[in-house]
Amino acid sequence: MHLTLRNANDELPRLNQAVQAFLDSHSAPTETVFATHLAVEEMITNIIKYGYDDAGPHEIGITLTREPGRLTIAIEDDGHEFNPLNLPAPDTTHQLEKRKIGGLGIHLVRNTV
User: Fold this and answer.
1) In sequence order, what are the residues at sequence separation of 6 or more whose Cβ sits closer than 8 angstroms to the Cβ of residue 9?
2) Among 46, 59, 85, 102, which residue's CB has the most CB atoms within a 10 Å radius?
3) Whole-model pTM?
4) CA separation for the pair 60, 112 (Å, rounded)
């Protein structure tokens, strides 16, 4: 599956529908459906929110491919370079009120996918 999105939050329902249709067509297990939606929505939302210095239109491409025992998610955009694997893990030992805001979405993605 390949989908090109505009860098706008109103594209998220279309993204979710396309991802769900792809997963349904491959009879993906519930755990895979949950993890895929979490990862895709978190990454695309972060690109829309933080990826650009301007409010102009940009395209975000997402490709899902399935091979035996494997689902690959590829996301391409022309925003700021960012590798979520380079981010340090958030400190989850403190009380919620004392934690720094941000980083939990990527933490969930890294630990789910």
Assistant:
1) 45, 48
2) 46
3) 0.86
4) 22
